[in-house]
Known about the structure:
Number of helices of chain B: 10
CATH superfamily of the largest domain in chain B: P-loop containing nucleotide triphosphate hydrolases
CATH topology of the largest domain in chain B: Rossmann fold
CATH class of the largest domain in chain B: Alpha Beta
Radius of gyration of chain A: 21 Å
Helix content of chain A: over 70%
Number of strands of chain B: 10
Strand content of chain A: under 5%
Distance between the termini of chain A: 47 Å
Largest interface: A-B, 12 and 22 residues
Oligomer: heterodimer
Distance between the termini of chain B: 72 Å
Amino acid sequence: MANLLEDVGKKTLDELDYVGSLNIQLWSTLHAMKSALPLIGNRYRWQATVRQMFQIGYEALPMVSLMAISTGFILAMQGASELRRFGALHYVIDLVAVGFTRELGPLLTAIAVSGRSGSAFAAEIGTMKVTEELDSLRVMALEPIEFVLAPKYLAALISIPCLTIISNCFGIVAGGLFMFFSTRLAPMLYFRYVMESIALRDVITGLVKSVAFATIIAHVGCLEGFRVRGGPDSVGHSTTTAVVKSTFLVVVADAIFTAIFYFTVKS
Amino acid sequence: MPIISIRDLAVEYDGRRVLDDLNLDVEPAETMVLLGGSGSGKSTLLRQIIGLERPKSGTVLVKGVDITRCSPAELKKVRHSLGVAFQSAALFNSLSVKDNVALPLREHTRLAPSIIDLMVWMKLAVVGLADFAKLLPQKLSGGMKKRGAVARALALDPEILVLDEPSAGLDPIVAAELDELILLLKQAFQMTVIVVTHEMASAFRIADRIAMLHEGKFVAVGTKDEIKASQDPLVRNFLDRIPERIANATAVAAHFEKYLHSQETVQ
């Protein structure tokens, strides 16, 4: 019994330590982020940010697009098979449009980026730690938070909402293709219905979520990298942990945001 | 007045004392070699001198600033006068050798890019890497990486050059080349050099004074001749290469017999 209590206490303290570290890292990064901004910041940091945007955003584009198209088709087909029974096939348009802008676009993008970039952040920073590169930054009077993390976070804050918008578009296009092939609904008419079914609030909701997801992915990935202890095997472990934790936290954050938006709409 | 002054320095990891009440002064333009076996605390002491870790007690004054208690801004200022080459070289793998050396100049000076290029070329020429400036670190041999790290450490013309195991893992010819490079740098730039090593030939070639560590304590501090003439058993054992533990064939045989007996009992 004593052992069980000890284990629970230790685990709780570990989790509190993790949350505390995430918070400290977030505030330190926000403080350092002006150096990564264009024009007013450091030129080299902005260049690093652009490189990161290319890696997080542009290189993930084919994967995110394909995932969005597939999910758009799946959602439309599954929705149609049920709604057809009630003669409400036209509601497939609402289902796809609203479902993607509010929920699936941000979530799918976050999961894809978490797997690609969250793990890459952890591996890159973890390797830098093992090879003493982070120490060499410190002794050169350069802060790793400013030099390594700030460009990654800013790049994620820009790239992930952009990817989310693209994901929304591809998902909705997939729904349109399904409607065209199954009901011969003209594409222009489909897009008119889509515009009628989604409100600006839905788009903003999705984008707010994607900014929160970007924060989770960048910070969990980087923190796992900074927490690497020992040799190369711990880099592999931190990479896996980064993906698992960021995906888990993204889904939890999504549930919280959805609940907040749901109850605020009702009131 | 010493440029580095260590007083009553004690370091503990998880309650285990790694450095125990160390006192040492390093004079300006002096080459101080920290000599000792594996696990003697050399690298830990070095990390204290460059402000990467905080001690349990004691002070480390670098140019009159106690870097164990100073503010981050003061530590940054002190670090501008430190050049550090790590044991693993710690060159940034994503940057070419030239960009590695240019990094501190770009970050801490407002020099024009053409001047920075010229300075980088000069530093690389000093260490004999001018023809390899555009290569990435992974394309370099071990000795070249270490010389690259020295070039980067020299970038801001530091008053204090710190080298962690510069000849570790190198063949005797390359190690001797590095020793000559250290002597040349000291002669040319009149800088204070602190070298951590366990290679006696290297230590006696480059040192003005040697501080010998054993189990976290200084067992001898003095000039090369004083260390050579020392009659301290620990110093003599190290200099005469007398091992502390010798594999005992009888004890190994006894252990093996005991193991076989225990296996027979289990069966």
